[in-house]
Amino acid sequence: MLESVLRSRAPEGDPEDWESRRSGNLATARGSSGLSRQERSRHLWEDVSMVEEDSSKLNAMQLRLDESQKVLLKERE
After folding, report:
1. Mean per-residue pLDDT for 41-65?
2. What whole-number distance in Å separates Cα of residue 4 and Cα of residue 30?
3. What's the mean pLDDT in 38-63?
4. Dist. CA 42–CA 73, nearest whole Å
5. 37-73 as b/e, with b when 16 or more CB fall inside 10 Å?
6. Hey, where are the domains in the chain?
7. What is the predicted pLDDT for the residue at 57?
8. Would you say 55 and 6 are in contact if contact means Cβ atoms under 8 Å apart?
9. Percent of the residues in the chain that have a pLDDT greater than 70, as a whole number
10. Alpha-carbon dihedral sign for residues 44, 45, 47, 51
11. Alpha-carbon Rg of the chain, whole angstroms?
12. Among residues 57, 45, 54, which one has the least CA distance to residue 9?
């Protein structure tokens, strides 16, 4: 599920170009930010939890929409 979310947010273009840009950005970020391995790991887990939270919200909204559509269909009958 996480991969599908990340892929949907990935820029268009050649995957190899994306990988090279990502690798370059990671190297730059590591060199300039000076974050420790532990801090980077914590940031990664925060990002993952945000994606999971967004996914949960999306699921809840989809369920509410489905229920609303059922109510509307019943009212029309």
Report:
1. 92
2. 26
3. 91
4. 47
5. eeeeeeeeeeeeeeeeeeeeeeeeeeeeeeeeeeeee
6. 16-76
7. 93
8. no
9. 57
10. positive
11. 20
12. 54
Measured CA to CA, the distance from residue 54 to residue 48 in angstroms comes to 10
**In the structure encoding, which two tokens stand for residue 13, read together?**
């273009």
pLDDT per residue as tens digits for the range 22-32: 565 555 554 55
Collapsing DSSP to helix, strand or coil, 12 comes out as coil
Is the whole model's pTM more than 0.85, yes or no? no
Alpha-helix runs per DSSP H in the chain:
2-9, 15-33, 37-76
Residue positions counted in the chain = 77
Q: Which residue type does 16 have? A: E
List phi, psi (to 5°) of 10.
-70, 145
Share of the chain above pLDDT 90, in %: 35
